[in-house]
Amino acid sequence: MQSQGETEDKGEKEVGITAPKDLSISRDSISLEALDEGPKTKALTRSLLLKLDTRILPVFILLVLTSFLDRTNVGNAKVYGMNEELGLTDRQFQQGLVVFYPLYILAEIPSNLILKKVTPRIWFAVMTFLWALFCMVLGLVHNFNQFISIRALLGLAEGGLFPGMVLYLSTIYTRSELGLRIGILYTSTSLSSGFGGLLARAMGAVGDRGGLTAWRWIFVIEGLFTILCAVFTYVMLPNDLRTASFLTQEEKDHAVARLSGLLSGGTGGKEAEERFSWSEVRRAFAYPLVWLTASAYFGLLSGIYSIGIFLPTIILKLGYTAHEAQLMTVPPYGIAAVMTLVVAFTSDRLKARGLIMLCTMPIAIIGYAVIANIGNEYPKVKYGATIMMTTGIYSSVPPVLAWLSNNSAGHYKRATTAAIQLSVANCGGILAVFLYPDIDAPAFRRGHTVVMGLLVAGWFFILANVLVCRKINRDKANGKYDKYIGYGDDRDPSFKLVL
Questions:
Q1: What is 280-499's CATH number, 1.10.10.60, 1.20.1250.20, 2.40.240.20, 1.10.260.40?
Q2: How far is CA 61 from CA 64, 232, 422, 423, in A?
Q3: What would the pLDDT profile of 386-397 be if each residue is shown by its tens digit?
């Protein structure tokens, strides 16, 4: 799996981009107590994680919730007559959805560069305020041109959020702790859609007030809520571990020691001292695990985005009223949220990623197979299928995100592989908006079948990835990677890949 000349790559001239100084820490600068892995240190780790989880995760949960809510609420607004009032054709509605994703994808890398310079506390708050503002303006548009322009700006504002969060969390938690935290964050996406259904139902009950129709109030209320989240982010989020006011000095030293590899489970001292090299970027693009996981993730996100946008419409076409359809979007997301947490926790405990996905993805595949082939005379069966679709897809995402991070090292290769994976997968959002046109109602058989096909292909990509990881581990055990001893990255024979 090594590209030609990798040994020589280590000798390439490196440019002066280094890891943050607060993570470049030697054993001499940490007290013996911080290095001791006895009962006292374990208690200190538990106290540290409790503080990080209760101070940082709630901020990011709110940001994920509001971002997914503000990008998919057009599905709820459509049910309450947005297209008719704006004079949008089905094709124009699709164009308004599509325009969000190219700018969303293009914003990811530049946003991460700005994140380092502006500081996380300020940049996350600024991003959140901007997309909140654009969400509110969507409730005030009057024609197609205004609708499509604001949707494009919304994508630009939201693009840096998730890669920025992953980058930030990698400087807060060790790799073995990331899976569950990503699972918690992704649970927010399913909760956001359920919350969106409840809010849309409430706006439908309120009706037309203050010169605004019900669908307009959806955007205005959600935008105002997101502005409050931007203020909360600025107040609560620390820029890094060293400036976290809620940690004691002992906890700060211990946190930095863990991430410096001085204790088991850290990211490794070599990564803390690593300098940027283009050879690491090339290694990322040549890594087969990137393309296998990204291809599977593409199918998952195609399903997630299409469900987020079109689930109210799908349920509406089963014969329920608009109010009933909004409320009935809640149970699928609620069940998916619970399942996502269970799977993320199990995945961390078993230290298994792909093996877990081979079990969760078939749940969604069966759901899509049922809803695509059962007639509308069985609405309860088809509604049950939507629960399987949502549960199987959402619960598969934390393992695939954590998997590539677990199997990529050093720092700049992992940063590049994460960017590639997210960029490829987010293209699923572009495909998703074309999957459920009104002309295919009420069965939407074509859209369901396409997503099912992508998930089946994704299952085989995951299986292939498991087999590739197993082969690499076997080759390392047989000495085929011995020339990389001491490299301190994923080529080192001591670095075993997670299956």
A1: 1.20.1250.20
A2: 5, 12, 19, 22
A3: 899 999 998 999
